[in-house]
Design brief:
Layout: E1 32-35, E2 42-50, H1 54-61, E3 76-82, E4 91-98, E5 109-116, H2 118-130, E6 134-135, H3 140-147, H4 153-164, H5 168-178, H6 183-205, H7 216-244, E7 248-254, H8 260-268, E8 286-292, E9 295-301, H9 315-327, E10 332-338, E11 357-362, H10 369-377, E12 381-382, H11 391-405, H12 414-439, H13 444-462, H14 468-475
Parallel strand pairs: 1-6, 7-9, 7-10, 10-11, 11-12
Antiparallel strand pairs: 1-2, 2-5, 3-4, 4-5, 8-9
Helix pairs in contact: 4-5, 6-7, 6-13, 7-12, 12-13
Length: about 475
């Protein structure tokens, strides 16, 4: 059986429901109500209530029979009719009831399934509020499930990820996380660190009696395994963050007057950069967002690479410094060379083996047939900003790169990856320090300190250690009714 996680804040007090700045936190014992299905016309709609008065309020409008006493501890469903003050006729509904503590929120929970007519739904919610319920805040149902120990933070975030999923791959990732794909390895690591900490502290308790109760070889093996697992988790978090929301950076590089700015404008389909026949028009770098389906690419136009003055204040030198700075962060390089002029492609520079590069020939509308043939033979994408030649092929090549660089099935929802990657990395760093301390024959106290730091970081991932600000950031992303 999975251990229940009772969240605690950094002072050790139980976490309360989050609230905005200057607001009083909502009472977890309030009975809350919200529409649990998307707002709009539909065959069915679900209105959900949770709290100590959920059944009492629902029974005022729905005549569905309560379950027999023997069945009260099990979720039950019953058909009935709604009698709402705003409508003279009664409306068919199905009532689902789950009693505390055997419900999603750990409280009495009622769902009213009725016709998805907006006036009916609004009238039902309004009647519930009039009778004492409060409109739920975004994510409050899931928040109550978390506070009741029904799930950890990673499973809670997976619910939001499933609701927001825009493809089968993202939905599958959310379902895997809801099933414990992140929580299980984190909980396993926390158990391992707790066992190691207990072993070290047992030795500290008997230090005055010269009893060495810790086996440093076994501790080292456990720490090496934990470091590897944390590294793998960190890689998953970084890959998921990059694939799900952060722009990938593609940088245009090449000689002056190689057609970089014209290509930049053509890809963005707007005049973002000044274009001139005169070489060296671009001095600073320009950034634009290129959307390729669901992928976002940060496209950067840079100053041309060529001889520059060595004067400290020269504009060419400053442009070169700016270009080198932005080029260092390039995930993809678009090396641009003019196909016209000399009648042949310029020599390709040498790039690191692990640097993705697309070689692009610009101004192909001015090139002769031999130059265009050479471009095809050399696996260079021939383009023309003036005629549009090759732009679709170049966009497709960039899209293939974004897909391949985030290859593999996602295993983490975007919200969890963005929130947890720093904590997982810090836990790995603390594990590294513990290993260094162990190899350096440091005292057990120092090793135990690093293990406590790693435990605190992992506790933030699943919510065993949390603050109200953290919960506010997480659950404010949810839809109302979830």
């Amino acid at each position: 059986m999975r251990k229940r996680l009772y969240p605690r804040n950094v002072e050790g007090a139980p976490c309360a429901l989050p609230c905005g700045a200057g607001q009083s936190p909502p009472d977890i014992q309030d009975t809350i109500v919200a529409l649990a299905t998307p707002r709009g016309g539909a065959a069915r709609a679900v209105v959900r209530l949770s709290g100590p008065r959920a059944w009492e309020i629902a029974a005022r409008f729905c005549d569905a029979e309560p379950p027999a006493r023997a069945a009260q501890l099990r979720p039950s469903a019953a058909d009935g009719m709604l009698a709402l003050p705003a409508f003279p006729s009664r409306i068919a509904c199905t009532l689902l009831r789950a009693q505390s503590p055997r419900s999603f929120t750990g409280q009495d929970l009622v769902e009213l399934h009725t016709i998805g007519c907006l006036p009916v739904v609004d009238a039902l919610i309004s009647a519930c509020v009039t009778d004492g319920a409060r409109l739920a805040m975004p994510g409050e149902f899931t928040m109550r499930a978390f506070l009741a120990g029904k799930m950890d933070l990673t499973r809670a975030e997976a619910i939001a990820g499933l609701v927001d999923a825009t493809s089968p791959r993202l939905a599958a990732a959310a379902l895997r996380q809801m099933a414990g794909g992140i929580a299980r390895p984190i909980e396993h690591l926390r158990e391992r660190f707790l066992d190691l900490l207990a072993e070290l502290e047992a030795g500290l308790d008997f230090a005055e009696e010269d009893l060495d109760l810790s086996n440093r070889a076994e501790i080292r093996g456990a720490l090496l395994g934990a470091r590897t697992e944390l590294g793998e988790l960190g890689d998953q978090m970084r890959e998921r963050t990059a694939a799900a929301g952060e722009s990938r950076r593609a940088v245009l590089l090449g000689a002056p007057n190689a057609g970089k700015s014209s290509l930049f404008n053509a890809l963005l389909e707007r005049d973002a950069a000044l274009v001139s026949r005169r070489a060296g028009t671009t001095r600073d770098y320009l950034v634009g967002e290129l959307r390729l389906g669901t992928a976002r690419v940060e496209l950067v136009d840079t100053a041309g690479i060529g001889p520059s003055s060595m004067a400290v204040e020269s504009i060419e030198r400053k442009a070169a410094v700016a270009r080198e700075g932005v080029s260092a962060s390039a995930e993809l390089v678009l090396w641009c060379s003019a196909a016209a002029g000399t009648g042949a492609l310029e020599s390709r520079p040498a790039f690191p083996a692990d640097q993705p590069v697309l070689f692009v020939a610009t101004k192909c509308d001015l090139a002769n047939s031999a130059a265009r043939a050479a471009a095809v033979e050399d696996a260079v994408i021939a383009t023309s900003a003036r005629t549009g030649q090759g732009l679709l092929e170049l966009r497709e090549a960039i899209a293939r790169w974004t897909a391949s660089s985030g290859a593999g099935e996602p295993t983490v929802v975007a919200g969890t990856a963005a929130r947890c990657r720093h904590a997982v990395e810090q836990a790995r760093v603390a594990t590294e320090r513990a290993l260094d301390a162990l190899d350096g024959a440091a005292s057990d106290e120092l090793i135990a300190l690093e293990l406590r730091l790693a435990l605190d970081e992992l506790g933030q991932v699943v919510g065993a250690v949390c603050t109200n600000d953290l919960l506010d950031r997480i659950f404010s992303r949810f839809c109302i009714g979830k």
